[in-house]
TrEMBL record:
Subunit record text: Homodimer.
Name this polypeptide is given: 8-amino-7-oxononanoate synthase
Region listing for Disordered, in residue ranges: 40-64
EC number(s) from the headed UniProt entry: 2.3.1.47
InterPro entries with a match to the protein in the record: Aminotrans_II_pyridoxalP_BS, Aminotransferase_I/II_large, AON_synthase_class-II, PyrdxlP-dep_Trfase, PyrdxlP-dep_Trfase_major, PyrdxlP-dep_Trfase_small
Hydrolase among keywords: no
Cofactors, names only: pyridoxal 5'-phosphate
Reactions listed under catalytic activity: 6-carboxyhexanoyl-[ACP] + L-alanine + H(+) = (8S)-8-amino-7-oxononanoate + holo-[ACP] + CO2
Recorded family membership: Belongs to the class-II pyridoxal-phosphate-dependent aminotransferase family. BioF subfamily.
Residues of the Aminotransferase class I/classII large domain: 89-428
Listed Pfam families: Aminotran_1_2
Organism this protein belongs to: Actinacidiphila acidipaludis
Amino acid sequence: MADRTRPVAAGVCITTPCAGVTGQYVAACTPRAPPTAAHRLRGSAVNSTPPAARRPGTGPFGRLAEQDAVRRRAGLRRELRPREADSALLDLAGNDYLGLTRHPDVTRAGAEACLRWGAGSTGSRLVTGTTALHAELEAELADFTGAEAALVFASGYAANLAAVTALSGAGSLLVSDAANHASLIDGCRLSRAAVEVVPHADPDAVRKVLAGHDGPALVVSDSVFSVDGDAAPLPRLAAACREYGAGLLVDDAHGLGVLGDGGRGAPHAAGLAGAPDVVCTATLSKSLGAQGGVVLGPAAVIEHLVNAARTFIFDTGLAPAAAGAALAALRVLRREPERAERARAVARDFHQRLSAAGLDTTRPDACVVSVRAPSPEDAVAWAARCREEGLAVGCFRPPSVPDGVSRLRLTARGDLTAAEVGRAVEVIVRTAPRR
Ligand SMILES: Cc1ncc(COP(=O)(O)O)c(C=O)c1O
């Protein structure tokens, strides 16, 4: 297995983001730490503005064609393709882990919420108010995960920006895992805090950084990492934080609904639910099959976010249809907790069968299973061959991967039948690049 633990910029204190670098895993760089080759591939060469931004005669956007050419040469150009309402493809690309996005209770609740409350929230909840639906969703999410309180946002991305920025700021320190999701990285960039990027899943590195800092600190980590599907060592991270009086912020996007008792999430499984020094974020768009995000934590933290989080204050509240659908999905999960275990079992099955067939497959701690490809071009061609055979798989390439290695990303769904799992494995193995 390739090295996942190498940080992008381990131990580098970051105070100014690297201008124009937009790759998910290009956390930042400083004048003291010139970009590495990996930085350049994942970030500036592919996505950003070359230093001579204004070239006479090319117009203000002339440089985009140069960037496009770089992407094409590197096999990293992305394209949108149409999606049909009733696709015959077997979907292993989305994040609908529990198969709830088309569950009749969920779609009906979304439609009814839209009819009752309107198509949109019409403004920031601080301006237009909180509906009973939003309040109910927040109370049930908090109760389910064992948190004291909850606040929902228009997306998980917005929830992460809110939590990271409102719980840090100038004079404080953010300690961020090198494989964190882009939304946590962007929160760090916006925070005005000092940021230390530490090697992946390394509580000792976290401890070392905290030991050298005097002042408020927040350690930020995904619970399940979105590319390889491995879990963060939450109990050991929490212990490191407690040793130095730091807060812990866990993004449970890929844990909620899948890990813990009946899908109560990774912090719950780690015994951290309701802890006064732990804040959790999650998305409503994966296991809960809807759309939106949530911050879960102590009531004082949630009250602070209402007053300080810009993505709450200046963003239109979560759409009623999404709130209604997420609430219905949560109720299905509470009624049928076995959905969580079934999804994990499917993930283990994929891993076992693909590894046995000789593919370089990550061991899943939740529902994400990653299969490595020799190159970005191979990954794209492999995904296209799967598609031709009726299978939709994710294709992750730089800059969306922490180590520059392209892969197919499969999401195990609890509603897949044994025959569907078998067909998926057969297609992936048969269409694999031969090298
Ligand atoms: C780990 C992680 N955090 C946050 C998000 C953002 O959530 P949303 O899609 O609801 O904005 C994602 C989505 O892909 C994710 O994988």
